[in-house]
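Allow me, if you will, to draw on your knowledge of protein folds for a short while. The matter concerns a single protein, recorded as an amino acid sequence and a row of backbone structure tokens. Kindly check, if you would, that the fold set down in the tokens agrees with what the sequence suggests. You will find the record immediately after this paragraph.
***
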Amino acid sequence: MKPQKKSFLKKMLMLFLIVALYNLWTLRTVTVFYASAKKGNNIVVDHLPLTDRDRIHWFREHKQEFKEKYNLYHMFDRKIYIWDIGNGFTNNQLSPHADLYCFDEMNAEKNCIEKNLLFVAETNSDGRETYYIGGMGTLSYTLSSDGAISMHRDEHFFERVYENVMQSINPLNYL
């Protein structure tokens, strides 16, 4: 077999494997381990789809289920936070050095997860939805009334965070 043909076959095999792995990942059903509206609208899942488009689509498909089954979307808190379960539920004694998010309303010894915010869905007062991938950061998507999704980048997000941190640790603030 010619070297060029071998190289082409290797590339095709690699492409096939990538597409197969992507399909396996996206076909996995998302498992909801916990949902609560006690301390904000929180959902803990094992994973989300791979792409931003698929994450938004998944959320929109399950939005009614979140309202009915888990009683989320209260009148005053119109954000839903979707967290990664990571290595499972833990507590401060088992993970003393981890940055944890705890669900105090859970009647369990292990009621915390390591903070890994995957997705935030926000509905404003006029019904427009905004989606934040990976938390409330630099990238968001807005759903218009005609169903189109537009992407927005906040180029100054990290500058504002830096200014807030510097202001909070400024020794003159404590005088």
In short: The longest helix spans residues 3-27.
